[in-house]
Specification:
It contains 15 helices and 10 strands. A 5-stranded mixed sheet has the order 2-1-3-10-4, with helices on both faces. Strands 7-6-8-5-9 form a 5-stranded mixed sheet, sandwiched between helices. The N and C termini lie far apart (57 Å).
C-alpha cells in the first residue's frame, strides 16, 4: 500500500502529465534552405505552439514535391506545409489529403537575372536568349510560360533550359551556360553585386499565387482537430511576430537554419514583410486558382479544382475562416 507521500507524488506526476503538451515532429518543405518554414521556426522559439497545447520539437524536411507529401503521410503527427502543386497532384491520384491552411501566398520574390553589364534589362529581352529555370513542371517553369502568354511572347522565340536549384541557376548565369536565369532569396541578395535584374515576376504578371499550403490526412482531420487548430494558430502567431519584429525573427531563423549570415537574413525578411510573403493561414481562392492555371499550362492539371471538396477551413483561427 502506498504511503501518503507516495500517493501525493503520484498525483503530482499525473497532474503534470495531464498538462504537458505533446511533443511532435511535422513536415515543412525545403526547411533550412528556403523561407517557407520561417513562421514555424519563430513559433517554436517564442513558445507559440507550446502555449496552444502542442510542442513541436523537430521539422522533417525534403526537397519538396511528392516527398514532402509522403513525409506528411508517414509522420506520427500527419501535418505538413507542402507545395500546393504537390498537394493537388496527390489528391488527384487518390491520396486522402485535406488542405487546411495557406502558406506562402506570392511569387513576387522570384526574378530573372543576368550578369552585371548584360544588355538584358526587361522581359522582352529574353527573346532569342537562353533562359534558365529550375525544372520542368516547376513554379518557375509555370511563371515563364504564363508571363509569355500574358505578354505575347512565343515560347519558340527563346530557348528554355532547366538548370536545377536557385544556386545552380546563379552559377549557370555567371559561367555563361545561360543568358538569364531565375533567382530568389537569399541567393539574389547574396549575389546582387555580380548580377542585375532582367525582370521581376511581379512586373510581368500577377504575383498572387499560393505556393505552399498546410495539409493533413482525411483521417487525422476527423480525430486531431485540437492539435491542428493549435498548429495553425501557432503558425499565424509566428507570421504576425515576423511582421512586427523582422530583425529578431531573422536572427531566430538564421539560428534555426544554422546560418551565420544574420545581416543577409534581416535584409530578406524586410523584403518579405513588404510583399506579404507569408499568409497568416488564409486560403484566397484566386491565388489557389492561379496555381491551378500554372499546372494546366505545364500539362499537370486538367480543368479547375473544386476547392470545397479538398479544403477544410474549420481548423483555422476564427478571424481567418471567412
Amino acid at each position: 500500500m502506498c504511503s501518503p507521500l507516495t500517493r501525493l507524488a503520484s498525483a503530482i506526476c499525473l497532474l503534470f502529465a495531464a498538462n504537458t503538451t505533446r511533443a511532435d515532429t511535422i513536415t515543412v518543405t525545403h526547411w533550412g534552405d528556403s523561407f517557407y518554414g520561417a513562421p514555424y521556426a519563430v513559433a517554436m522559439a517564442k513558445g507559440f505552439f507550446k502555449q496552444n497545447g502542442v510542442d513541436i520539437t523537430g521539422i522533417l524536411t525534403s526537397q519538396g514535391g511528392g516527398t514532402s507529401v509522403r513525409n506528411t503521410l508517414a509522420g506520427d503527427l500527419p501535418y505538413g506545409e507542402v507545395a500546393l502543386s504537390a498537394a493537388i497532384e496527390a489528391i488527384n491520384n487518390g491520396v486522402p489529403l485535406k488542405i487546411i491552411g495557406g502558406g506562402v501566398q506570392t511569387v513576387a520574390d522570384i526574378l530573372w537575372v543576368a550578369k552585371k553589364g548584360s544588355d538584358m534589362h526587361s522581359f522582352k529581352d529574353i527573346v532569342g536568349h537562353r533562359v534558365g529555370f529550375t525544372s520542368p513542371g516547376s513554379v518557375t517553369n509555370m511563371i515563364l510560360l504564363m508571363a509569355m502568354k500574358e505578354n505575347g511572347i512565343d515560347p519558340k522565340s527563346l530557348k528554355m533550359i532547366p538548370v536545377g536549384g536557385v544556386g545552380a541557376n546563379t552559377t549557370a548565369v555567371l559561367n555563361g551556360a545561360v543568358d538569364t536565369a531565375m533567382s530568389g532569396e537569399p541567393v539574389w541578395t547574396e549575389n546582387m553585386a555580380q548580377l542585375q535584374p532582367v525582370f521581376w515576376t511581379k512586373d510581368v504578371m500577377s504575383p498572387d499565387m499560393m505556393q505552399t499550403v498546410a495539409v493533413t490526412t482525411e483521417d487525422y482531420a476527423k480525430t486531431g482537430g485540437a492539435t491542428l487548430k493549435a498548429l495553425l494558430l501557432g503558425r499565424k502567431m509566428g507570421v504576425e511576430y515576423i511582421e512586427a519584429h523582422p530583425d529578431e525573427s531573422a536572427e531566430i531563423v538564421a539560428k534555426a537554419f544554422s546560418s551565420a549570415n544574420v545581416d543577409l537574413y534581416k535584409k530578406v525578411f524586410h523584403t518579405f514583410v513588404a510583399i506579404h510573403y507569408w499568409s497568416r493561414g488564409e486560403m484566397p481562392i484566386p491565388g489557389m486558382d492561379r496555381m491551378v492555371e500554372g499546372l494546366e499550362i505545364v500539362g499537370k492539371q486538367k480543368g479547375k479544382v473544386d476547392w470545397s471538396k479538398v479544403t477544410d477551413k474549420s481548423f483555422l483561427p476564427a478571424d481567418l475562416t471567412n
